[in-house]
Amino acid sequence: MMDTILNHRSIRKFKEQAVGEEVLQKIIEASSRASTTGNMQVYSIIVTQEHILKEKLWEAHFKQNMVKQAPLVLTFCADFNRFNKWCRQRKAEPGYDNFLSYMTGAIDALLAAQNCALAAESFGLGICYLGTTIYNADQIISILNLPHSVVPVTTLVMGYPDETPELSDRLPAGAIYHKEQYHDFTANDIDRLYEEKEKLPLTAKVVEENKLETLAQIFTTRRYTKKDNVDFSLRYLKVIHCQGFMNHEK
Ligand SMILES: Cc1cc2nc3c(=O)[nH]c(=O)nc-3n(C[C@H](O)[C@H](O)[C@H](O)COP(=O)(O)O)c2cc1C
Question: How close is the Cα of 97 to the center of ligand 1, in Å?
């Protein structure tokens, strides 16, 4: 297991080779063994293989090539639809149309997704997450026919790798690990923790190409700008509302 975890790299080029149904079913089983809130399993996984649907998903995911190329596209959703139906069929009135319930489903979906990713990698498959799921969730809802009480949270593209990228860098453990209580960072800590990342040859190249001064500016002015973050936040909040997770009347 440690080998699988420590060798993870996102894969963005896939062979045409299909993923066998037996392997897929084992991966789904591994996904379903993830912990979930109250064992309610308030998530769902939509596995898309059809060319026409993948083409539509590709558009929604900002035309990222791997969506068309990967044999499988798995969309993980926060899903109270099934659970609410079960409650109502069993004379129980669900109160799961609020933001906490959305978060509950989203957490379940993400834990299942990471189990799914590791299981796939243990079978020699490659995966890449797609953050674009929450940017264009409204489009994905319509493409995948998601009913009320279902919201897409993340996507994995999956298939046999046709590339072996270098392991990507990570910050030193001190950046994410706090003993006993949170120890806030001094300016020196920040310099030390980001030193290695900032010294990578790729960093210098990207900063220079973009005619910027620092790597942080790549994030704030190119990759994840305030404007985009606000625009996509508002769209996603609308989706959560329309799918029925914003009722806070008691
Ligand atoms: C929630 C999430 C969303 C991501 N979205 C994208 C994406 O839209 N496109 C992409 O190429 N990579 C995406 N990635 C992959 C990250 O870029 C990648 O995990 C990170 O650069 C570290 O590289 P590694 O996974 O190879 O270790 C995403 C990863 C996560 C966890």
Answer: 30
